[in-house]
Amino acid sequence: MQLHETELLLHCNTCAKTFDGQYAAETHALEEGHVEYTDITGSTATNALVHAPSTTTHAQCVYDKPAEEAARSHRDAEEKAAKLRDMEKRNLGIKKQKEDNAKESARIRANIAADKKRRDSEKSRRIAFLKSAESGSARSVSTLLQEEASCNKEVRLKLRVVGVQECIEEGFPIESKLSAVAELVHQKLYVTAAGFKTSFPKKEFRGADFDSTLEELGLVHSTVLIVIETR
């Protein structure tokens, strides 16, 4: 039944609102989804369903309850699946963070243990050195110092240039060549070294000494090297 807007006074059976004309009722139906109305224009009330006329620009009102419920169920399932994926992702992130923390803790503990072992070993060597020195061991003090430095595998060198306030203090593996020390001086102090010398005991290292290792030159414990500049 097609009713004209000017002839209708429609009462919404869902929310009990009254609308003057079919257009107003159609708009309400589109916005709220209420589709059952009673025509109260005349003295006899008539139940009516509001339909959008084929000539109107409003979208046609189609209400398929099973289809709506199926669509709602599908949306709910998708939302639930998305929440589960997010939860799994968070759990994986937490698990990975715990694993990384455990690895880092293990690494730190290993470093602490290795450092303690090294310090204990150095302490034992020093005690042995003092006992040997007190008992007048046949081995010389120089030999004992060289043995201790060889165990450490690294020598600390303080490098100075005469007339230059700045100096370098660097650790070198004992198998490093003297040329590596000269290269460091050139890079950091901008000085070309022709050689090096020590104050005590007095020694000089030049020429072919640059191809020798620190261990071969007897530089196996911390010392000060004075740079001999190229003239």
UniProtKB/TrEMBL annotation:
GO terms for biological process: negative regulation of proteasomal ubiquitin-dependent protein catabolic process; negative regulation of protein K48-linked deubiquitination; negative regulation of protein ubiquitination. The keyword Ribosomal protein does not apply. The keyword Cytoplasm applies. GO terms for cellular component: cytoplasm; nucleus. It is found in: Cytoplasm. GO terms for molecular function: K48-linked polyubiquitin modification-dependent protein binding. InterPro entries: Ubiquitin-like_domsf, UBX_dom, Znf_C2H2_type. It comes from the Eukaryota. Pfam families: UBX. Keywords: Cytoplasm. PANTHER family: UBX DOMAIN-CONTAINING PROTEIN 1. This is Ubx domain-containing protein. It comes from Pyrenophora teres f. teres.
